[in-house]
Amino acid sequence: MRLFGASWFFLTYLPISNLFDLNATVAEHWLYLPSVGFCIFLAGFVYDLPARYLRSAVVFACLAVAALSVRSAIRSSDWVDPETFFRRTFAAGGSSSRIGVNLGVIYAMRGEHGKAEAILRKVLEVCPNYPLARNNLGIALTQQGKTKEAAALFETASNSSAPAKGGYPRTWEAARNLARLRHKDKDDVEGAILERAHRDYPSNWELIALHAEIVRESQGPEGALPLVQNFVRGHWWHAGASIALGGLFAEMGNSPRAEEAFRHASILDVHDSAGLNLIALLKVSENRLEDACAIQRRALARQPDQPRQYLILSDILEKMGRGEEARAALAQVERLQAVAKTQSATAAKTLAN
Length: 353
Known about the structure:
The structure is a single chain. The chain folds into 4 domains: 1-50, no CATH class; 74-144, Alpha Horseshoe (Serine Threonine Protein Phosphatase 5, Tetratricopeptide repeat); 202-269, Alpha Horseshoe (Serine Threonine Protein Phosphatase 5, Tetratricopeptide repeat); 292-353, Serine Threonine Protein Phosphatase 5, Tetratricopeptide repeat (Alpha Horseshoe), CATH 1.25.40. The protein is extended. It contains 18 helices and no strands. It has helices at 2-13, 32-47, 51-76, 82-91, 97-109, 113-126, 131-143, 147-158, 172-184, 190-200, 205-219, 221-234, 239-251, 255-268, 274-285, 289-302, 307-319, 323-352. The chain is mostly helical. Helices cover 75% and strands 0% of the residues. Helix 12 (221-234) runs antiparallel to helix 13 (239-251) and helix 16 (289-302) runs antiparallel to helix 17 (307-319).
């Protein structure tokens, strides 16, 4: 039994022992399976104890199980929601960079940027060169109007090495945020910032999308088109990029190329209706209402629980003079909104209890 338990432990522990690269240094749930082997190993010792010690061992084991059960019940309350888990872990001294950043992001998403700033500053006291903390602190400061300090944080975070060079992941977010800030201030350096980031992250659509949008504002869709076309050429499987390409063609008045791009996007993501919605709107602009209606019905079939699909269909039907069908589509919108409101109220009541 002891040999079996020891073998179980080592076989299940080796994969998470950091002999191989993992996405974290340690995590408590990684030890669940090895712990089973360790318990079997201990049971083997207990099984071989003399009879006079066996009763004491059983009593000790029962007390240990009871104590650990109580501790598990207390610990389970930490997992009520992400905020509770991160807040309690942070307060208990688990001030790891990831815990602090995650808690800061939750506060920021709620609009509590002051709280996010305080948490992220604590993280940087412990780990001053952590780019994700610098980036998220920069976002919190930007929302509070402290753009000068935010720009400095984005600058240092974006200068961190990319993962391919042994650095941190997602430093491109800092470059994107810095470019947005510089563009807002009309510094005319955002293009250089994005190009530098693109060299480290050549497959990142978010960087290309922002660069294309900035170029479109100053040079029109013709100026942004090569950026998006080059990306789509090398990433034909990216539905969002195809939709952006179609949008540029549509803005240029090239409906056939726009429809081709939108249709490609709708094939890539068979659960999303954005591509079909845009094709339907193209058909409406061309006054091809029957085609628009047929395509929008296909979009609705993909997302029958989304009110927006019925609104678009209702608008098309109204233009076709089919008022009764248009009103029936609007009734579906009201029904879905009522269901969503009921579900929200039920969820709020459950959380309150």
